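Q: What would this chain look like folded?
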Amino acid sequence: MPNGNAHTVSAFDNDMGQLRALVSEMGGRAEAAIAESVQALMRRDLDAAARVVEEDRKIDILEVEVERQVLRLIALRGPVADDLREALAALKIAGIIERIGDYAKNIAKRVPIIQDAKSIEPMAILPAMGRAAADMVHDALDAFAARDAQKALDVSMQDKAVDDFYNSLFRALLTCMMESPQNITPSAHLLFIAKNLERIGDHATNLAEMVYFAATGQILPDRPRGEDMLAAERV
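A: My prediction, written as structure tokens:
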């Protein structure tokens, strides 16, 4: 019987290793999609934007595979306590990553729309905002791979930087709209793009919350939200 138990534990560990690898691949693709969609936007590169849209299908396929693997693991291995919590966290994390990929795809889809629009100065903020959001996703996935609760907590604190970028861009684009009617349409599209990046930051925080829960069994405390951020969401 001890040998049987050892075999079961080994089999579960192997299954979880495969599951973590799938989640890691999903996350890597989503992280790349964020960077590539923002680069395509800044360069007005339609081919690069089209590739981001196409590559999103692979993230969707991986999410389905994660779901299949989790259901199989639960059915065959019957995990309990910490093991069950980690398996369910992987399932939830895959769903969050899929949404992050969708936000990157949405950014790429706006590249052809603003291809011929004149450049607007606040647009220069977007690359730094995109890097901050992508870094959050990267760090949250590192925390998941290491089952590091403290690193997950650190990720949740990084979201303020993404919110600050959004608030700054929001105000700057409103000023552009008021200064010239010609700026209204491109500024509106850039606001949607900035909102997508801000939502990626929120979803990276959700990733961190799931990692923290998987590692500790506790709910990550809600982060404080500034008045500027709440006001911007009401507009």
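The CA atoms of residues 140 and 163 lie 17 Å apart.
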